[in-house]
Known about the structure:
4-stranded antiparallel β-sheet; alpha/beta; Arc Repressor Mutant, subunit A; 2 domains; 5-stranded parallel β-sheet; about 20% strand; Rossmann fold
Amino acid sequence: MTHHVLLVDDDPVVRDLVREYLQGNGLAVSVLHDGTGLKRRLDVERPSIVVLDVMMPEQDGISALRELRAAGDDIPVIFLTARSDVIDRVIGLELGADDYLAKPFDPRELLARIRTVLRRRDAAAPGAPEDRPPYRFGPYEVDFAARELRHNGERVPLRSGEFATLKIFVKNEMVVLTRAQLNEKLRGQAGTYRDRSLDVSIWRLRRLLEADPSDPRYVQTVWGQGYIFVPHGETGAVERAIRRASTEA
């Protein structure tokens, strides 16, 4: 299947360059000159992913993304931002952008990020319902059949990439998972990845799960190794898990 990219950017030079490069690498590409008509466009044309510039006249990328997510549209989005627009990047990620790329950029990097986001989305796509009882930790419940996360009974909005990451963690509780292992489980491929998609998923999970995302209790960092899911949120769990792993080795 040929993936279809919708590029939304008011700069004709960027549009032509990106369109030519992506088409030359087997992707279908259509363009939109600003964010004003994005939602209407998606009602009649359904691309695989949207590449969305932040700084545009009429309606900027942040407003366009906010409108999409408010309407419940979960289409993958990669933001294009000016290199200094840190606030825009953070806002975009909070609104539900899947990744961002700072201008000026190499089209090869954009292609790599597009493929990464699409692989992650394909890996998290619903398949046959899982015959597994809900998993509970703290005030949360993971419903595998419904592919939902609930907090004290209330559904927590969770994107497919974040659900896939959470599912891997809860299936491997109290096990230190390296970044390579997480990427392999998410994408079905081994190797080292330099993109930030895993960081984005974990960052979003922590914002949803943790009382203080800067001091996480459920998804804890194992410095120099990776991450560990601690269902009871206790401190000292990382050290105990590392000692147990070294004893079993």
